[in-house]
UniProtKB/TrEMBL annotation:
Enzyme nomenclature, EC number: 4.1.99.3
Site residues by UniProt (Electron transfer via tryptophanyl radical): 306, 359, 382
Catalytic reaction equation(s): cyclobutadipyrimidine (in DNA) = 2 pyrimidine residues (in DNA)
Photolyase/cryptochrome alpha/beta domain mapped to chain residues: 1-130
InterPro entries to which the protein is assigned, alphabetical: Crypto/Photolyase_FAD-like_sf (IPR036134), Crypto/Photolyase_N_sf (IPR036155), Cryptochr/Photolyase_FAD-bd (IPR005101), Cryptochrome/DNA_photolyase_1 (IPR002081), DNA_photolyase_1_CS_C (IPR018394), DNA_photolyase_N (IPR006050), Rossmann-like_a/b/a_fold (IPR014729)
UniProt organism field: Neokomagataea tanensis
Binding-site residues, FAD: 226, 238-242, 272, 372-374
Annotated protein name in UniProt: Deoxyribodipyrimidine photo-lyase
Keywords: Chromophore, FAD, Flavoprotein, Lyase
Record's cofactor remark: Binds 1 FAD per subunit.
Length: 473
């Protein structure tokens, strides 16, 4: 009897405990992926992540082919498709990794009981996090709410060891006949009319080799400077591993183990490991607090009088707020599917504080436009940046976009790359063109309201409005 490996957010063979466990049975293996939109937030998969998925699935298939197997891909409800695959193939058991979003966990429970009624096993391992989320608990067996306390324990425990690709795997030869009418048409994942993804293609190579290469380049060339370079938006100071981690083309445990093998003592390695720790904290928090993507963690913030302004929201989404560093960041996101972490914090604070628009609008826009979209990291970071209850981040901390730009993009290199209309401005007015004299703007070819927008909000007024809304609670 064959066994099934069900790939989900783990589209790789390296460090894949479920694949290893299936191979160890000695039975022929059937490898499947099911695109099930009902398990995504709002039952839709983001456009950018969908673009990424197309090649990520091809990468997994290529890895399997090297071992003599292949990937079967389906589209539809996994709780219908998977039991049907098992029924038709006569499989004895299904192997997969745990997921943390509530909808996915509920589905796994449901599928587990369906399979058990059929006398089929469903074995779930932890393969997308460093550890089991219940390994790090307080003395009272509660989950940590503050990152530093969580990190202290995780740091001392370390990660589980990654597992290698098994040497011998026997694949089932009968997969081809299974559920032919529910196969995923991969071409639908990438529509080229209109061809909105040219910037994506120029920015990313989507396969597991590229993931390992990105890690190598980072560890060889950037890790030692990471502690300071990571905040500078114009520099290639970070690893750009997030999308590979989100789709599982590389595992966090492999990243963790390589960092510790090669850069054990450096400050950069320590800071980098703690960023992998933030990813872990996001998954951990979503596991222990399933409402994370749906409501503000601190109850009183659920009553915040958020503004509803379709005009301001659209200006923010399209990078047309008139606040240059915000616009640069939002255009980087739109064109490449990725945004620098410092920039994410700036635009998040601007949306939720200066514009007083609900963090959930930002969460939804990022969900649609990020190639590294991850349900846990996105929701946690939006709640962190808006100060609505994650970690110790207070609501009253408002990032000043001008000061942030002056500090983390002092020469405006990042800004001018994405907002070329302002490329002839320099000095402080590059960050605040509304303060420039008529003559300066004219000399730089800038006409506010014509070829670059007037700011949609007065920054001090926006800040005060947010703080009074907060104080009124
Ligand atoms: P590096 O600096 O090289 O960090 C290495 C890895 O650590 C990253 O690849 C990522 O997996 C992890 N990491 C780093 N910072 C964080 C963080 N703050 N939270 C969680 N993990 C982190 N990251 C996502 O992967 N998916 C998201 O959907 C996402 N949404 C975000 C939304 C907002 C509002 C903010 C402020 C941050 C968000 N992040 C998200 C976190 C972070 O911005 C990205 O992980 C990071 O910019 C990716 O670039 P990198 O791989 O070069 O990071």
């Amino acid at each position: 009897k064959p066994v099934v490996v069900w790939f989900r957010h783990d589209l790789r063979l390296d460090d894949h405990p479920a694949f290893v466990a299936a191979a160890a049975t000695g039975s022929p293996v059937i490898c499947v992926y099911i695109l099930d939109k009902t398990t995504y937030l709002e039952s839709s998969i983001g456009g950018a992540y969908q673009w990424w998925l197309h090649d990520a699935l091809a990468s997994l298939n290529a890895e399997l082919e090297e071992l003599g197997g292949y990937l079967l891909t389906f589209e539809g409800r996994a709780d219908e498709i998977l039991p049907e695959i098992v029924r038709q193939s006569g499989a004895a058991s299904v192997f997969a990794h745990h997921r943390v979003l509530d909808k996915e966990r509920q589905q796994d429970q449901h599928i587990s009981s369906l399979l058990s009624e059929m006398g089929v096993g469903f074995q779930l391992d932890w393969g997308t996090t460093l550890r089991h989320p219940c390994d790090v608990l307080t003395k009272e067996r509660r989950s940590y709410k503050v990152y530093t306390a969580f990190w202290k324990v995780l740091r001392s425990l370390g990660a589980e060891e990654p597992v290698d690709v098994p040497e011998h795997v026997q694949f089932s030869a009968h997969g081809d006949d299974l559920l032919k009418d529910q196969r995923l048409n991969a071409a639908n994942l990438r529509s080229e009319k209109p061809d909105w993804a040219a910037g994506f293609r120029a920015s990313w190579r989507v396969d597991s080799h590229a993931a390992h290469q990105a890690l190598d380049v980072f560890l060889d060339d950037h890790c030692s400077e990471y502690a300071t370079a990571r905040d500078h938006m114009a520099e290639e100071g970070t690893s750009r591993l997030s999308a590979y981690l989100a789709s599982g083309l590389i595992s966090p445990r492999r990243v963790w183990s390589e960092v510790h093998k090669r850069n054990e003592k450096g400050k950069g390695a320590e800071v980098f490991a703690s960023e992998i720790g933030w990813r872990e904290f996001a998954h951990y928090t979503l596991f222990h607090t399933p409402s994370l993507p749906y409501e503000s963690i601190t109850e009183k913030f659920r009553a915040l009088p958020w503004r509803k302004s379709a005009h301001d929201l659209k200006a923010w989404q399209r990078g047309k707020t008139g606040v240059p560093i915000v616009d640069a960041a939002m255009r980087q996101l739109w064109q490449t599917g990725w945004m620098h972490n410092r920039a994410r914090m700036i635009v998040g604070s601007f949306l939720t504080k200066h514009l007083l628009i609900n963090w959930q609008e930002g969460e939804a826009w990022f969900r649609d436009t990020l190639v590294d979209y991850d349900a846990a990291s996105n929701a946690m970071n939006w709640q962190w940046v808006s100060g609505t209850g994650i970690d110790a981040a207070p609501f009253f901390r408002v990032f000043n976009p001008t000061l942030q730009a002056e500090k983390f993009d002092p020469d405006g290199v990042y800004l001018k790359r994405w907002v070329p209309e302002l490329s002839k401005l320099s000095g402080k007015v590059l960050f605040e063109p509304w303060k420039a004299s008529e003559a300066t703007l004219r000399a730089a070819g800038v006409t506010l309201g014509k070829n670059y927008p007037q700011p949609i909000v007065d920054l001090p007024e926006g800040r005060d409005r947010a703080l009074s809304a907060f104080k009124a609670l």
